[in-house]
Amino acid sequence: GDSVTQMEGPVTLSEEAFLTINCTYTATGYPSLFWYVQYPGEGLQLLLKATKADDKGSNKGFEATYRKETTSFHLEKGSVQVSDSAVYFCALSRDNAGNMLTFGGGTRLMVKP
Amino acid sequence: SQTIHQWPATLVQPVGSPLSLECTVEGTSNPNLYWYRQAAGRGLQLLFYSVGIGQISSEVPQNLSASRPQDRQFILSSKKLLLSDSGFYLCAWLPSGQPKNTEAFFGQGTRLTVV
Predict the structure, then answer these.
(1) Buried b / exposed e along B69-91 (16+ C-beta atoms within 10 A)
(2) How confident is the model at residue B41, as a pLDDT?
(3) What is the mean pLDDT of chain B?
(4) Closest residue of A to B49, CA-based?
(5) Contact status, residue B110 vs residue B92, Cβ threshold 8 Å
(6) B69 and B75 Cβ atoms separated by less than 8 Å
(7) Does B46 contact chain A (CB < 8 Å)?
(8) Alpha carbon distances (Å) from B106 to B23, B110, B115
(9) What's the pLDDT tens digit per position in B15-58?
(10) What's the rounded Cα separation, in Å, for the pair B11 and B8?
(11) Contact B10, B89 (CB under 8 A)
(12) Contacts of A45 in chain B (CB under 8 A)
């Protein structure tokens, strides 16, 4: 079945540091890939997405590139802020009856001033 | 615009008691609806999804059940809670008939603690 694997957290960085959160997936066909973010006490919201190989999703300074050859979708940001502290979830979706998302385990990011 | 409501936000229940969590969506019709659980230290696990009234698909065997009595209402229930049912429950929706790259929208979640 489908699966998504993320690096375990927590990841603790100082403000303005470079961020990478690794994500790899297993799925048949050509899934769409997503990063969702969960700020403290809130539900999830979409951060960025990519639909096909070599697509780059970007939003709020975050980027991720759909790499089919390595089945990866790593999240990066050049300079993190305290406000980026949250839990980040990598996810995939394939064409199926329910269009449901398969999530990774989530990675907690803590940014210190 | 579309909104999703989920309640209650926090719940503490004794072992063996029943459970009912409700989720409603406004501003859309015939959405796909989902219940996810986020257990402590673990990722998001899909519990149930529904593509229409009365249509429920279960992804994992468990102590829980789901129902969709109305088009935009999705209910998660249990007759007798277990300690292992503790976690953060999230309701989500997607517009039906859309491509796989469509964004899903999540409720604020319910933190359930079974004591």
Answers:
(1) eebbebbbebeebeeebbbbbbb
(2) 67
(3) 91
(4) A98
(5) no
(6) yes
(7) yes
(8) 10, 11, 26
(9) 999 999 999 999 999 999 999 998 776 778 899 999 999 999 98
(10) 7
(11) no
(12) 106
Using an 8 Å CB-CB cutoff, list chain B residues near A27: none
The label of the residue with tokens 């519990």 reads: B47
CB atoms within 10 A of CB A41: 9
Question: What pLDDT does residue A51 have?
Answer: 92
Residue A101: list chain B partners with CB under 8 A. Answer: 34, 46, 92, 104
Task: Give the dihedral of Cα atoms B67, B59, A32, B24; nearest 10 deg.
Answer: 20
Split at pLDDT 50, 70, 90, the class of B75 is very high
Inter-chain CB proximity A43 and B109 less than 8 Å: yes
pLDDT tens, residue by residue, A76-102: 999 999 999 999 999 999 876 666 889
Minimal CA separation from B48 to chain A, in Å: 10
Report residues of chain A scoring pLDDT below 50. Answer: none
Alpha-carbon distance B45 to A4, whole Å? Answer: 12
B97 touches chain A (CB under 8 A): no
| A45–B contact, CB cutoff 8 A | yes
Cβ of A46 within 8 Å of Cβ of B104? The answer is yes
Within 8 A by CB and 6+ apart from A46, the residues are: A34, A35, A36, B103, B104
Nearest alpha carbon to residue A104 among A38, A42, A52: A38
What pLDDT is recorded for position A100?
82
